[in-house]
Amino acid sequence: MTSKIVIFCVVGIVVVSFFFFFLGQKNEGFQLTPQRAAAKSTQETGVSGTEVGTGWSISEYPGKAVREAVDIALGDKGQKNPDIAIVYASAGSDMKGILDAAKQILGRNTKIFGGTSDSRAVMTDKGFVRVTGRGYTQAAMEGAKGLAIMTVTSKDITFGVGSANLVEFSSPQEMARAAILSAIESAGKPAEQAPTIILLACTIGIEEEIVEGIEEVVGRDALVLGGTVGGPDIAVFGEDAIYEKGVSVAVIYTDLPLGWTFEGGFDVTDKHSGIVTKVDGQDIVEIDSKPALDVYDQWLGGEIGELYEQVERADVVKDLLLLHPIYRKYTSRSGQDYFLFSHPWPKDDKMEDRCVSTSTKIKPGERIYLSHGTWETLINRIGNLPRKAKIQGGIDVAQKPVLAIGFICGGVMGAIPETEREKLPILINYTNNNAPFIASFTWGEQGHFPGVGNKHGNLLTSFLVIGPK
Amino acid sequence: MKLFWKIYCVVLISFVAVIVLSSYVTSAIRISDAQKSIADEQRTIGSLITSDIERGQSESKWPFESLKKLSEHHNFIFWWIVDENGTIHLADKASFIGSRPCDYFPQIAGALPDDDLLLEQQQNFGLFVKSFRAKKQKWNFWLGFSTEYIARTSRKIIFSTVIYSASALVILGLVLYFVIIHFLRPVKHLTAGAEKIGKGELNHRVEVESNDELGYLASSFNKMAEDLKKTTTSIDNLNREITERKRAEEALEVSNRELRDFVYIASHDLREPLRKISSFGMLLEESLGGKLQGEDRESLEFMIDGANRMTQMINSLLEYSRIGTKEITYETVDLNEAIGQLEQLELAALLEETGGTIEIQQPLPSVQADPVQIRRLLQNLITNGIKYRSEGIGPRIVIRAVRKSWGLLTEDSPGEQTAEDTVRIEVQDNGIGIEEEHHRRIFKMFKRLHSRDKYEGAGIGLAICQKIVERHGGRIGVESKAGVGSTFWFTLPASKSLEQEQEKLISSLET
Question: Closest-CA residue in chain B for A381?
C-alpha cells in the first residue's frame, strides 16, 4: 500500500511540476517612457535687427498667462517691448483681461493683433497647446485655457494694427475700411501705400464683406491672409477693447522676402458638382433646383441619410462632411485654377430642413463641387505649408525663415485624431527649419488667389513665411 | 493484487514520461513557431510601413494613418522615424521627437544600423529597426513591439497542452486500470486455482477464457493439475508397495534371525547329546574291549564315527553361524603379516607334511577387515589349495594382488566398488582344479566334489569364505580348469593408509 502511495505521489509531483513549470513563466510588461526633447531655440532669426519670439501658457488667469507666455517669448531678448505681439487665446478665455495684461506687460507701444482661437488649441513652434476645456487629459502642454504669443521687433519689418467694432459701423465693409486705414496709419504709412501683406482676425459671418471692404482700400491684388477667430466664444482684439463682432487688422511693410499659401488639403475630382440655385445668407437652400441636402446626400451615395438614421445626431454628420467639403473653382487670368472650400453641414439638427449651412456666402449661379479628404492628407498638408509658402515666395526651402504665421482651420484640426494633433508643430518645424511660428485655429480662412483676388473659405489654411534677406 | 499494481504503475509512469516529454516538445515547437510568426509579422509590418514612407516621400507625405493604426495596435509600444543625424524625427508620441534612440537603447551602438535589426529585449519587449532612403537621406524606422502576445500565446499553448495531457493521463489511467484488470483476470484465476490445488483440491480446474498465451497457460495448468493428480495416485501406490515390501523384509529378517537362532541353538544343544554319544561310545568300546566282534564292533565304530562327524558338522555349522551373526570389528589388516603368521602357526604342520610352499610375489596391500575373519578366509583358501593338490606335485600357493584389478576392477565387475577403495586378492594353487560347471556350487554349504575317503573335510570351508567376504562387502569367485589348478579371488575394502602402499606397489611392478 505504501509503495502505491509513493508511486502515485511521484506521478502527481511530475504532473504538477510540469504544470507549474510552464504556467509559472510570467513576464513583466514593457513601457518605454518618452523623454521630453530639449526645447530647441527658435529665437535665432538670422536677420540682424529682427527679434522674434514665441511663448505659450496654459494658465487660466490672464495676467499670469500673458506673463508666462511673454517670458518665454522674450526670454533673452534685448528688446522687452516688441513692435508687435500677435496673441491668440483659446475661445472662452478672458480676452479683455489678456488684452489688458499684454498692454501692461509689453507697454502701450506694442501693437496687439489677434483674437480667439478654436477652443481646443493654440500652437507655436514650441508645441501644440491642447486645451482641456472640452475634457481632454491634462498633460504638460494641456490646460483649461491656452495662450500663444509671438513677439516681433524688427528694423526690416513695419507693423501696423487697426481694429473696428461692427456695432460702430453701418456695414462690415465700412468697418473693414476703417480698420485697414487705421492699421496703415498705425504703421506710419500713407493710406495710398498698400501694405506688403494684411493679416486679418475677423468674427464669423461677415468675412466676405470684410475682405470686400479691405479690397476697396488696398485693391484686389493686395495680399490678405487671415482667419475667422475660433469659437464658440469669439472675440478679436481692439486697441483697448475686444469685439465680438468686429475685425482686427495687422499690416506689414517689409522688403524681406515672403511667401504664403492659401489652400485646403482635399482631393478635387470634379466628379460631382451642381449649380447653386437658391441661397439664404450662408445657407445653400437648393442645388440644381433641388433641396441642397438631398443633392449632397446623393453625391455621397446616401451616406448622410444612413449615418443620421444610425446616430440621429447632426454633429456626427457634420464630422463626416468635414472630409467631404464642397468647393468652388476659380481660374486666374493666367489660367491657374484655385479651389475655395466650404464646410457644409445640415442646417437643421433634425434634418427636416434640407438646407446646407456653410460659413461662406455662396452666390446663386455658382457651381460647387464635391471633394474628399482624409486626416492623413490634411496633416501632411499642414506639415508642408512652410515649404509651399517658401517655394511660393522664392525662398530656398532649406533656408530658415524669420517667422511664420498660420491660420489653420479648426475643422481640419478636428478631423485629425487627437493623438496626432501634437505632431502638427513638429511637422511644421521640420519644413519651417524650426523658425518661430504662431498659428491659430480658425472657423474660416481668408487668403489670396493670385489673379483672382482675396477670398474667404473654410477648411483652408493660410500660411505666411517671411524669409531672411 | 501486487502484480496488477506493479504493471499498472510501470505502464502509467511510462505513459506519464512519454506524455510529459511529448507535451514539452510539442509546446516548445508550437511556441517557437508562434515566436517566429510574430517576428515575421514585425518584419512585414516594418517593411510595409517603410515602403509606405518611401512612397509618400515623393509627395512629402508621411503615412500617418498607417502609423496611427500601428500606434493603436496593442502589440506595438512605439514607432520612431529617425533621420540621418540619429534624431527622432517623427514618433507615435511627440515627446519622443528630438531625442535620440541611443538615449533609450544605449546598447545599440550608432544611430543608424545598416541592415534590418530585430532584437528580443527583456521584459516582453522586442525591437525592429529597418533602414530606408527618402529625400536622398538615410532613415531608420524603429518599431518597438510587445512580445507579451508571444508570452500570452505561449501560456495558452502550454495551458492547453497541460490540460490535454492531464485529461489524457486521467483517461489513460482509467483505461489502463480496466484493461490490466481484464488481462490479469486469468492470472488471478490461476493463482486462486494454484492455492486450491496446493490445499489438496486436485479436482479443481481453471476456466480457459482466451486463445492466447494466458489461455495456453490455463490449459497447461489444468493438464498439470491432471498429471499431478495421477502422479500423486502413483506415488501413493508406490509408497504402499514400499511399505509392504519393507514389512515383508522385516518379517523375512525376523524369520532369518529366528532361523539363525534356531540353527545356533539347535547346533549348540545337539553338541551335548552327540558328545555323550561319542564319549559313551568310546567308553563302551574300551569296556567291551575285545568282547565285541564282527558286525557289533563295526556297528559301534560306525556309531562313534557318525557321532564324531556329526559333531564336526555341527561345529562347522556353529562356526558358519557365528560368522554370520558376530559383529565385525574393522581394522587395518596387513595381509603380508597375516599370511606370515598363518605360515608359521596354523599352516606350519600342513606345509611341512605336504612340502607345500606359499609364495607372495609382491608385497600385498593392507585391507579394512576383521583380522580374525580375514585370517580364517586366507587359511581356508590356502588349506584348500594344499589339500586338493595333484599327486606327485608339491603344492605351491601363490598369493598376489593382481595389478590388473587395481585399475580394471570396475570394468571387470560393473557395479562394484572402485579401484581406489577396493583390493582384489588372488590365491592361486597348482592343484587338481575344478570343472567350470562346479564353480558356483563349491561355495554352497556341505557341498563336496570328492568322496570323504579321498579328501577329508565337512564341505563348509568355501561357504564360510563366501560368508566372510560378503559380510565385508566384497565378492568372491574362482577361475579354474580341471588339472591345471585354481585361482580363488576375493575383493575387500582397501585401507586408506594403503594408498602409499599402492603407489609403492605400482612403482615396484613397473620396475
Answer: B61
